[in-house]
């Protein structure tokens, strides 16, 4: 009896291993290796977020694509903490030979510096940006109980309007803070640890409004449990065609989260080209496009230098706006 | 409720391929549960691509869900045998579980834990089947003030968990609260006790603290003990819980299951509160509370039933309102997106096959886990026969590996070793790590919820009392504090009980 159990356990463990091997890290030696020798070994992809968030899922999707296109394995390593600054520091320090690459968030470079002390600021100059990936829009949503349906309703609010954010130094916080300041509405920020708790508080009428990423909010918007007020992109979001942008409503507020592939500064150009090409090929696949659709991500597949220009512009614009309206994202700034 | 859809769900699960996926899922879950550190969320992330390739997406979801609740079973094993709690909700299992193991009753502890887990999970699934949407609504009424009140109650209950001296338990709890403040302030992003290290920016991870204080601390203490006096190996008898054990544990399992089901619905901290509340409840009800911490079977049965029930009821917010309650649920959310389903209020109407298929797979998955655990208990308890000289390095290896896999961080390994030394010193001086670890977990919850509430109330603290739920919880807190004083007042003329100063004597429980 005991022997049997043991062999059963061994069988199952074997099955588990086999599944992990074929499902997780595809270390097939072959693959369409049409771009020189890259990669020669496993390529680490640190991501500055926990498993399951959109940053993590995007990294994994890209990892799959790179692995299919280039062969070799691209394991995603969750290196959570400090808004992604820990993962960024790891990439910046890594050997500049393409063995460490990372999909990073714009907010870390353009928004977080407004909230954290000087010595914790991550500088885009420590990286080469290879390729843009996609944009993740923010939406301002109101709870059913608050009765708000548009920005104009804020004028009738009695007392302060409360808004939930997904944390300090995030785009969600900046978007909401700017909206209420530009609109001259007295408001109070309530920071939560991420989108899910902020959404929970909104659904339970604990806060009046919240700024969330579209993917986090869309299902409850579609089922009428929360009311979308405005989006913050340069144009309307394809997934919420009826929701006006802040610009349309006369507020000069434009905030977006976007992600892009980075490598350590000084990585050889042919390696960067190989990665960029493989990513562009990935973007063409049906699977990748379906992934974007499911996660409400808008493609932003622009070259690396355009990403850097956009980042610099956003950073300056946010800094100016925050300055102009006297907004304090964090006491330490 | 749509009974046809519910029954069709069983049709989905009992397809051979789905049964196989369910089996694979729970077994993988159990295995990774045994290894602390590599949690269900990370494993689900690795296996996520299966969702793309499976012939039937429902199978993939059934498997991923199985990993999650399977891991809850596995976690108990290291808590009882090696004194390494892999997650916050199994910390309280360590107290009596490890004590039982030392008395040679590891089999009893693991057997009761397996039965309790099965009953807790099953009761919770029934609750999920019948009451899911209703309970989800009540979870939404829990705002920051309610969490603050609940966490305050939790910190009070922490003082009941030790079996040593109350003052020492409170000191340890205070240190735990202090440690919880390390890291970047999540409201202002000001640095607190980070000493300029980016690694401390995100605070200290619970598993790092728990594995250091309990696991490494125990290893160090044992090494010394072995040199001091000859090691007496504990007799390993009683593979299977006796009828008497079952009779004692039965009511505890029932109470734990109910507590777990209701508290587990609350995202963030629900499972920890559930196991803690179940433990405190058992100790309160017990005729001889001094047995707790020295190998009371109810002290394993209650919390283990509670944390499995809580793990199951944490599916409720995901499946009914589309909110992932923890990292594992976030992975499941992602997997549902992969197969083309967005979890949310419409899930039950749009994809009844998936909704009921997954829920009903949990009935079967838990049955598989119970049937698997029972024979495995016999194998696992043999671990204790291994000589400490061999077991200690293996345990050390498991903890180091486990801690590394949480954040892929070498820094965390060193932090764990430091906590190991602290744990050793605490044991030498009669402080218990339990209150410290639990206060550490509750500390960030109580602080952030309180500050959030004060922002919501615009600085007016009366809101805590005027809101019905938080008011009720606070009244309960006051009652818990006042009870011993009131009792003392009534007993004034009776002679004072013997001094609680002597170390091994049952301490005077300030909360009774």
UniProtKB/TrEMBL annotation, chain A:
Residues spanning the signal sequence: 1-23
Annotated source species: Nocardioides baculatus
Keyword rRNA processing attributed: no
Annotated keywords: Signal
Protein's name in the database: Tripartite tricarboxylate transporter substrate binding protein
Assigned protein family: Belongs to the UPF0065 (bug) family.
Pfam families named in the record: TctC
Entry keyword Signal: yes
From TrEMBL, chain B:
Highest taxon in the source lineage: Bacteria
Entry keyword annotation includes Transcription regulation: no
Pfam family, one: TctA
Boundaries of every DUF112 domain copy: 19-438
Transmembrane segments: 20-48, 60-82, 112-140, 147-164, 170-190, 258-281, 315-341, 361-381, 410-426, 469-486
Disordered, as annotated region: 493-512
Keyword Ion transport: no
Keyword field: Membrane, Transmembrane, Transmembrane helix
The protein, known as: Tripartite tricarboxylate transporter permease
């Amino acid at each position: 009896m005991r022997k049997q159990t043991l062999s059963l356990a061994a069988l199952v463990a074997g099955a588990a291993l086999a599944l992990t091997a074929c499902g997780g890290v595809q270390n097939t030696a072959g693959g369409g290796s049409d771009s020189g020798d890259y990669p020669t070994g496993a390529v680490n992809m640190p991501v500055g977020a926990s498993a399951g968030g959109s940053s993590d899922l995007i990294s994994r999707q890209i990892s799959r694509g790179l692995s299919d296109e280039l062969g070799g394995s691209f394991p995603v390593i969750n290196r959570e903490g400090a808004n992604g600054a820990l993962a960024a520091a790891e990439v910046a320090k890594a050997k500049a030979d393409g063995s460490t690459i990372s999909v990073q968030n714009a907010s870390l470079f353009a928004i977080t510096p407004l909230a954290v002390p000087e010595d914790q600021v991550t500088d885009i100059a420590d990286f080469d940006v290879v390729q843009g990936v996609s944009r993740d829009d923010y939406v301002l949503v109101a709870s059913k109980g608050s009765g708000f349906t548009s920005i104009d309703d804020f004028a009738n609010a009695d007392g302060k309007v409360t808004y939930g954010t997904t944390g300090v130094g995030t785009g969600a916080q900046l978007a909401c803070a700017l909206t209420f300041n530009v609109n001259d509405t007295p408001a109070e920020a309530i920071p939560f640890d991420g989108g899910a708790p902020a959404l929970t508080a909104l659904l339970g009428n604990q806060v009046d409004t919240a700024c969330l990423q579209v993917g986090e909010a869309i299902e409850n918007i579609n089922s009428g449990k929360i009311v979308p007020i405005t989006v913050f992109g340069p144009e309307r979001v394809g997934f919420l065609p009826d929701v006006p942008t802040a610009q349309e409503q006369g507020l000069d507020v434009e905030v977006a989260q976007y992600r892009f592939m980075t490598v350590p500064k000084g990585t050889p150009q042919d390696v960067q080209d190989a990665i960029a090409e493989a990513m562009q090929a990935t973007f063409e696949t049906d699977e990748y496009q379906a992934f974007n659709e499911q996660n409400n991500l808008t493609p932003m597949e622009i070259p690396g230098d355009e990403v850097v220009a956009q980042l610099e512009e956003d950073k300056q614009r946010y800094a100016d706006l925050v300055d102009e309206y006297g907004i304090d994202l964090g006491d330490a700034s | 409720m749509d009974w046809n859809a519910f029954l069709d769900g069983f049709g989905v699960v009992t397809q051979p391929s789905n049964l196989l996926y369910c089996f694979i899922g729970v077994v993988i879950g159990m295995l990774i549960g045994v290894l602390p550190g590599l949690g269900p969320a990370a494993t689900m992330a690795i296996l996520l691509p299966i969702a793309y390739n499976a012939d039937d997406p429902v199978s993939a979801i059934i498997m991923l869900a199985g990993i999650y609740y399977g891991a809850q079973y596995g976690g108990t094993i290291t808590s009882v045998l090696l004194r390494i709690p892999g997650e916050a909700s199994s910390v309280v299992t360590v107290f009596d579980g490890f004590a039982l193991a030392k008395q040679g009753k590891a089999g009893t502890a693991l057997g009761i834990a397996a039965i309790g887990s099965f009953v807790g999970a099953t009761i919770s699934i029934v609750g999920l089947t019948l009451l899911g949407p209703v309970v989800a609504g009540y979870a939404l009424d829990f705002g920051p003030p309610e969490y603050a009140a609940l966490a305050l109650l939790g910190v009070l209950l922490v003082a009941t968990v030790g079996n040593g001296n109350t003052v020492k338990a409170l000191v340890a709890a205070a240190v735990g609260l202090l440690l919880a403040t390390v890291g970047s302030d999540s409201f202002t992003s000001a640095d607190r006790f980070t000493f300029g290290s980016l690694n401390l920016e995100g605070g200290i991870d619970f598993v790092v603290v728990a594995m250091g204080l309990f696991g490494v601390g125990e290893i160090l203490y044992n090494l010394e003990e072995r040199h001091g006096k000859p090691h007496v190996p504990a007799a390993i008898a009683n593979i299977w819980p006796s009828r008497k054990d079952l009779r004692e544990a039965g009511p505890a399992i029932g109470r734990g299951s109910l507590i777990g089901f209701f508290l587990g619905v609350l995202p963030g901290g629900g499972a920890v509160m559930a196991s803690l509340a179940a433990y405190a409840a058992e100790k309160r009800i017990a005729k001889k509370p001094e047995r707790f911490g020295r190998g009371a079977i109810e002290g394993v049965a209650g919390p283990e039933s509670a944390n499995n029930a809580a793990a199951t009821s944490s599916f409720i917010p995901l499946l009914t309102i589309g909110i992932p309650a923890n990292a594992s649920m976030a992975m499941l959310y992602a997997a549902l997106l992969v197969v083309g389903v967005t979890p949310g209020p419409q899930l039950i109407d749009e994809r009844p096959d998936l909704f009921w298929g997954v829920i009903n797979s949990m009935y079967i998955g838990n049955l598989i886990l119970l049937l698997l655990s029972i024979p495995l208990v016999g194998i696992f308890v043999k671990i204790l026969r291994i000589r400490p000289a061999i077991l200690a390095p293996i345990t050390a290896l498991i903890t180091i590996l486990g801690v590394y896999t949480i954040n892929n961080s070498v820094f965390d390994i060193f932090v764990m070793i430091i906590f190991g030394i602290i744990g050793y010193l605490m044991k030498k001086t009669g402080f218990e790590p339990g209150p410290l670890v639990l206060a550490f977990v509750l500390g960030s919850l109580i602080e952030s919820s309180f500050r959030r509430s004060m922002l919501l109330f615009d600085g007016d603290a009366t809101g805590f009392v005027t809101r019905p739920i938080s008011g009720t919880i606070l009244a309960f807190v006051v009652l818990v504090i006042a009870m011993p004083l009131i009792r003392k007042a009534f007993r004034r003329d009776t002679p004072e009980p013997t001094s609680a100063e002597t170390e091994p004597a049952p301490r005077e429980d300030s909360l009774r």
